């Protein structure tokens, strides 16, 4: 065969050996899917995931100081930061200038010397039944806090005390201004009690109490005292400004009487009208305004 024929002859097999059938499809065809390659170079590269730091759960009893001030209605958070930086804010008696400082809800926070509270001012009146201690402690069994648990989410406390077996009106609030109004010895708020004794109260003893009785050299002030109309002389009405009821026992123990029953029937202008025993209510705006003017 000539050289020319070997170069151009169609029938002669090439020197590379016989062609092998193949199933390889062109990647250009519409229906020709490219087969996956498992070559190491084509394997997808997995990004290394850096472990995320677990976020600390927020403490519901803590709050940033600037938010605490803002919630109290003093100013915005931004302005609060400015007041904090110049030393206008104290926490538990110490000046705090640190940004982002967190306070507990029961901390004493003062702005320019005046104590502030981040909660909405709340006023709840309870008609207390027997068997409940006037305390916020959970270790005293049944307390008045159990009775007002559903009244508000604000951290209210009772003003004054009623004995476990005493009944009647008890006011709760988170308003320090109102609390001071009650605890002011000269200008406190009057509370009217109905008291039942183990025996009739002698008229001369009633006069002693009315004129101001001295016990252990200390004068015990009473606003008013009288027999209850159309009732035995063992039942009396007594009005005091003291926030506790220990003073009642002090007076009658000194005069050799035993108290059988104590019922607080009025606090200032607030009465038990339409408030059954064991129930509570929020003060109306009018009741609150009158209370503030006392």
Q: What does this 3D model show about the protein?
A:
By secondary structure, the protein is an alpha+beta fold. Helices cover 21% and strands 23% of the residues. It has helices at residues 3-8, 65-71, 77-85, 144-147, 176-183, 203-211, 246-254, 285-293; strands at 62-64, 89-91, 94-95, 102-104, 109-111, 114-115, 123-128, 157-158, 167-173, 191-197, 213-215, 218-220, 224-227, 235-240, 259-267, 270-271, 280-282. The strands form four sheets. Strands 7, 8, 9, 10, 13, 14, 15, 16 and 17 form a nine-stranded mixed β-sheet that branches. Helix 2 (65-71) crosses helix 3. The radius of gyration is 41 Å and the shape is elongated. The N and C termini lie far apart (133 Å). Residues 1-12 have low confidence and may be disordered.
């Amino acid at each position: 065969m000539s050289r020319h024929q070997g170069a151009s002859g169609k029938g002669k097999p090439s020197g590379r050996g016989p062609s092998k059938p193949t199933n390889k499809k062109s990647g250009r065809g519409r229906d020709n899917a490219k087969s996956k390659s498992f070559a190491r170079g084509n394997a997808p590269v997995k990004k290394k995931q850096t472990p995320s730091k677990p976020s600390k759960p927020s403490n519901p009893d803590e709050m940033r100081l600037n938010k605490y001030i803002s919630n109290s209605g003093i100013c915005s958070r931004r302005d609060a930061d400015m007041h904090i930086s110049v030393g206008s804010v104290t926490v538990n008696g110490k000046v705090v200038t640190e940004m982002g400082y967190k306070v507990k809800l029961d901390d004493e926070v003062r702005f320019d010397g005046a104590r502030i509270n981040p909660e909405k001012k709340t006023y709840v009146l309870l008609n207390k039944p027997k068997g409940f201690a006037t305390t916020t402690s959970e270790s005293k069994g049944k307390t008045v806090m159990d009775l007002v648990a559903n009244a508000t989410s604000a951290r209210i406390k009772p003003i004054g005390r009623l004995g476990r077996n005493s009944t009647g009106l008890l006011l709760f609030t988170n308003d320090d201004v109102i609390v001071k109004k009650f605890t002011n010895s000269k200008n406190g708020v009057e509370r009217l009690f109905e008291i039942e004794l183990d025996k009739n109260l002698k008229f001369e003893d009633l006069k002693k109490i009315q004129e101001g009785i001295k016990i252990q050299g200390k004068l015990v002030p009473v606003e008013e005292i009288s027999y209850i109309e159309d009732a035995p002389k063992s039942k009396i009405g007594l009005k005091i400004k003291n926030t506790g009821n220990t003073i009642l026992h002090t007076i009658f123990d000194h005069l050799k009487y035993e108290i059988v029953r104590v019922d607080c029937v009025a606090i200032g202008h607030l009465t038990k009208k339409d408030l059954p025993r064991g129930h509570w209510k929020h003060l109306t705006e009018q009741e609150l305004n009158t209370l503030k003017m006392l």
